[in-house]
Specification:
Chain lengths: ~400, ~425
């Protein structure tokens, strides 16, 4: 868990200079930044406005996936559309019902855009802005909600700004918040319609809300672009060149991130068949960091006592495009050796042709981690299956947007 | 009597057309001749029947969940059978693509799926037909084609027994491979296999299917059902399922709400989709959703209306599609051009996933073609509204069968997600009280 949190901190800190956080804190908007290359596609940054709107603390949000804000009233089709936009690495603007920490639902305009690496065009982060949609206030039915609802609205500075000032003011004045709260609480009492809050009726954002979202996200992207330059890892809002050195799309990376076992993907079409993906578990098993293994052929795992006939067997199977299982002596970064029950299989993409080979490692003698009783061999095969599904499916569709 | 001729899909390596002799076959099947002492992995799942909380159904919703155990089991066993050569072809070697366009229909070129055999006659005018032991059924498949038994747990937790005996008396449900897969992981869910139920939906079996969808916890693992007369080829109760990590066109279709039932199930109709159908979602419990759908299916069965069902989004959305293509085909009302594609529009095709056997059809596959084919499958607007009326009369009579409307909320422990933060959870919907933690 520590390493996960470390990755999350790094996700932001490595890419953007220290002043970036301060700059982002200047914005009153509600937004989150997520990293698709970390297993679970977690939130790595949440604006204070977002935390206020949702009612969560920073610790409750960082590291979590956006789905924690969804609930039973959230339109499933909308969730699917967002999933698709992530998969296709393109922007999306959609009305969505979310839930605060206290369980109350609210409609908002969800506007998300990918952030690309200037150098190689892959997706580094997704930025999502949430603009609450304020409509005619209605009380929730049932006891005790009226007052509660009023209180909630009070706390949400952005909503109040909308009704009372009718213009897009950045600053939130805390005195006026209290004042506005009283005004709104009065509104809800006077509102004659006491029907249930119809969460199912989709709320449409109006043009001013859409403009607000677009402006906010542009501002955030400007900040990120600016503060990424000094770290030498520049980003931009539009994808530049796709220098395709065996790059996996972020959707494939997200899918592969769900697989908890140790495995790698290698690309037979690139010179010397390098590793193009390595799972966290693989890195843990072998002791290497990700940038120490990506781009290298697997042979670095072999050492003095590795049986050359086993290596030959692997080579032959790959040549014959067949699966194989071998028992091979491998070496970790610290030179400690271990017996690796290695299973290798070709993986085809949507064209029907082989796109990668997957290698799944099991350390012999290691206590069976899987408390639920799948045999190691079965778990290996399940990794192969999951990889095959991901690679095939995710290479079928519209290619990532080139914008 | 209406019949059509088609070559049935071979789902098992032991499927033959002529009648089998009943005595010992020496082929390691599931009948009395071979079943004694047989073992099969058993997966028992915890039945989720609690009220849907504000935070979604499963506890581990805070991250992109890891591959669920059932998912791993199914994928692992399937890959195992693949490496053992049990499938008639490698489906991952079949070219596939999303057809450009607004809807994203999916086409696959699969020349090996359909055999060049003599077509069999299928009766398409009766949705309910009695089980016929002389015909092929799933007790005749080889044991190696069965992956595991799938049952609700007696305790309150998921359990896995890699080597459980098959207890026929217990009437287990099983998951078997489809040897002519449409996609990776194509399996058959056969409820209470030894009871030899005919292909018709009942409440218990449908709930099993929904449970499986929820348990796999993968929005790209969908289950489907074809009634007789809607291109089911085997009259032995079964559902199908497979993995495809892209959205189906039917899932993207906008919907318009028609009503919400007492149990909290929302029913909508699809808009801007070539086949008219209903979408069921929500429900205070999974059982509410399940019963609403199965009661609707039973209504259609009783009224002899063929239909298909798609279970998607981990069991959160279910599509019900009455159809009439087989009848049209039998009456000679389908154009030769469409017939030539030999696409039988069953649940997957209707959902937007077309398997094409001719290269020409694959290369020329377009959104217009796909739309045109599926439009032929759909009921007309008038007929659809008539069918809806029948369905609503059957199910919206106030009570979903489990006396709902005043469902007492579950104690707070049930709601607790696995992560440590506790927070008040509000139950949205008809319930009047707020559950605080």
């Amino acid at each position: 868990m520590e390493s996960q949190l470390g990755l999350i901190e790094q996700s932001f800190n490595v890419r953007y200079s220290v002043w970036a956080r301060e700059a982002l804190d200047e914005f009153p908007d509600n937004f989150t930044i997520t990293d698709p290359s970390i297993s679970g596609h977690p939130i790595v940054f949440a604006s204070w406005g977002f935390l206020k709107m949702s009612g969560y603390s920073k610790e409750e949000v960082i590291g979590k996936n956006g789905r924690i804000f969804q609930g039973p009233g959230t339109n499933r089709r909308s969730v699917m559309e967002i999933r698709e936009a992530i998969r296709q690495e393109r922007p999306i603007q959609i009305n969505l019902l979310n839930y605060r920490k206290d369980g109350t639902p609210f409609w908002m305009l969800f506007h998300m855009r990918p952030v690309f690496s200037k150098e190689d065009g892959r997706v580094i982060h997704f930025v999502a802005v949430q603009v609450p949609i304020l409509r005619k206030l209605r009380r929730l039915s049932g006891s005790g909600f009226g007052g509660r609802n009023g209180v909630n609205l009070c706390e949400d500075g952005s909503m109040l700004r909308e009704t009372v000032f009718g213009s897009c003011r950045r600053e939130v004045c805390s005195d006026s918040v209290v004042e506005l709260g009283r005004v709104l609480a009065l509104d809800s009492v006077l509102d004659s319609d006491n029907g249930e809050l119809e969460v199912e009726e989709p709320c449409e954002a109006n043009d001013s809300e859409k403009l607000r979202a677009a402006t906010a996200i542009n501002n955030i992207l400007s900040v990120l672009t600016h503060y990424s330059e000094s770290t030498g890892r520049s980003v931009c809002g539009k994808r530049g060149s796709l220098s395709g050195m065996g790059l996996l799309g972020s959707s494939l990376i997200i899918s592969l991130g769900r697989i908890k076992q140790s495995f790698v993907l290698t690309d037979p079409h690139l010179p010397d068949m390098p590793i193009v993906y390595a799972s966290d578990a693989f890195l843990k098993l072998t002791g290497y960091a990700r940038d120490e293994v990506l781009g290298r052929n697997c042979r670095f795992l072999s050492g003095v006592d590795t049986d050359s006939s086993t290596l030959f067997q692997i080579k032959e199977s790959i040549r014959m495009e067949q699966a194989c299982t071998v028992r091979i002596l491998n070496y970790r970064k610290d030179n400690n050796s271990f017996w690796n029950l290695l299973h290798i299989s070709p993986v085809r993409n949507a064209t029907g042709k082989i796109a990668y080979f997957v290698g799944v490692q099991i350390e012999e003698g290691c206590r069976n981690q899987d408390r639920q009783g799948l045999s190691p061999e079965m778990r290996q095969l399940s990794v192969v299956g999951a990889v095959k599904v991901a690679v095939r499916s995710l290479s079928m569709g519209a290619s990532p947007s080139k914008s | 009597m209406l019949r059509i001729k088609r070559v049935p899909t071979v789902v098992s390596n032991y499927q033959k057309e002529e009648a089998e002799d009943q005595k010992g076959c020496g082929r390691n099947c599931l009948r009395n001749c071979c079943i004694k002492g047989a073992k099969l992995p058993l997966y028992t799942y915890k039945r989720i029947n609690k009220i849907v909380s504000g935070k979604g159904l499963l506890g581990h919703e805070d991250k992109e969940p890891p591959v669920a155990f059932l998912d791993s089991l199914l994928l692992g066993e399937w890959e195992d059978r693949m490496q053992r050569g049990l499938f008639r072809y490698d489906v991952t070697a079949c070219e596939t693509k999303v057809i450009p366009g607004e809807h994203g229909f999916i086409a696959q070129l699969n020349e090996g799926r359909h055999l060049k055999k003599r077509p069999t006659e299928f009766r398409v005018d009766k949705v309910l037909q009695p089980f016929d032991g002389n015909k092929f059924n799933f007790t005749k498949v080889g044991q190696e084609e069965v992956l595991f038994q799938f049952e609700p747990s007696e305790d309150d937790e998921v359990q896995f027994f890699p080597d459980a005996p098959i207890d026929v008396e217990n009437s287990p449900s099983v998951v078997a491979i489809n040897v002519s897969p449409i996609e990776y992981g194509h399996v058959l869910l056969i409820p209470r296999i030894f009871e030899c139920l005919p292909q018709r939906i009942d409440r218990e079996s449908f709930l099993l299917a929904l449970d499986m969808a929820a348990e796999a916890a993968n929005p790209y693992f969908r289950l489907g059902y074809n009634s007789l007369g809607a291109f089911a080829t085997i009259n032995h109760l079964h559902f199908q399922a497979y993995y495809l990590a892209v959205p189906f066109p039917i899932e993207k279709a906008p919907t318009k709400k028609i009503t919400t039932l007492d149990g909290g199930v929302k029913i909508s109709e699809m808009l801007n989709y070539p086949v008219r159908g209903l979408v069921f979602e929500g429900g205070n419990t999974l059982q509410d959703l399940s019963d609403a759908v199965s009661d609707s299916c039973i209504c259609l069965q009783v009224n002899n209306i063929p239909y298909n069902v798609l279970i998607s989004d981990c069991g959160k959305r279910v599509f019900l599609l009455p159809q009439c293509y087989a009848e049209k085909q039998a009456l000679g009302e389908v154009s030769a051009e469409l017939l030539d594609t030999q696409v039988n529009p069953a649940v997957w095709e209707i959902s937007g996933h077309m398997v094409l056997k001719r290269k020409k059809d694959y290369e020329e596959a377009s959104e217009e073609n796909a739309w045109r084919l599926l439009a032929e499958v759909s009921l007309s607007e008038e007929r659809f509204q008539e069918v809806n009326a029948l369905i609503f009369e059957a199910i919206a009579g106030g009570d979903n069968g489990n006396g709902n409307g005043n469902v007492t909320p579950q104690p707070p422990e049930e709601f607790n997600p696995i992560d440590k933060s506790s927070h008040p959870t509000m139950v949205v919907g008809n319930q009047e009280c707020l559950v605080l933690q």
